[in-house]
Amino acid sequence: MNRVLLVGRLTAKPELRYTNSNIPYTRFSVAVDGIPSSNGERRTDFINTVAWRKQAENICQYLDKGSLVSVEGRLQTSNYTDKDGNKRYSMDVQADNVRFLESKSQSQNRASATPYDFQQPSNDVNVDNDPFADFGDSVSIDDNFLD
């Protein structure tokens, strides 16, 4: 099975291009936080992505550098010979579905804000709206179940 699911931010404003047969497409890179290393630092991966047709047009019209997106697709490898005669390989995500995870105004507000403009999320929990209030008694799990 060849499926990819990414959540990240665009590294640049996507540009709409056309094939020789006039099919619209865009190539863009998504910055994705990796798994923390043993010292707690996160590495950022930059994943090359390609979208086609109407989806490419929408991406170029509505998204900008830093826009938060989710991408569903598949990995595709290709190879070519560069102008110096060297064999090159590439791997891209061919996007089947790109979802915009924030509005354009949220993206623009974030881009124009300083890091100190953002509110820290509240850790307060409203116990009056507990979705598990009618769930019943507590749930216990035997430690042997986890092995």
Short description:
This protein is mainly beta. It has 2 helices and 6 strands; from the N terminus they run E-E-E-E-H-E-E-H.
Secondary structure layout plus pairing:
Elements: E1 4-10, E2 17-18, E3 24-33, E4 44-52, H1 53-62, E5 68-81, E6 87-100, H2 104-112
Parallel strand pairs: 4-6
Antiparallel strand pairs: 1-3, 1-5, 2-3, 3-4, 5-6
Short key terms for the protein model shown above:
single chain; 147 residues; mainly beta; OB fold (Dihydrolipoamide Acetyltransferase, E2P); 5-stranded mixed barrel
Give an overview in words:
The protein contains 2 helices and 6 strands. It is mainly beta and 147 residues long. It has one domain: Nucleic acid-binding proteins (OB fold (Dihydrolipoamide Acetyltransferase, E2P), Beta Barrel). A hairpin with a 5-residue loop joins β2 (17-18) and β3 (24-33). The chain starts with a strand and ends in a 35-residue tail after the last helix. The model is unreliable at 115-121 (pLDDT under 50).
For the record, the CATH architecture stands as Beta Barrel
Class from secondary-structure proportions: mainly beta
Please report the total strand number as a whole number.
Answer: 6
Large-scale geometry:
globular
The number of distinct helices, counting runs of at least 4 residues, comes to 2
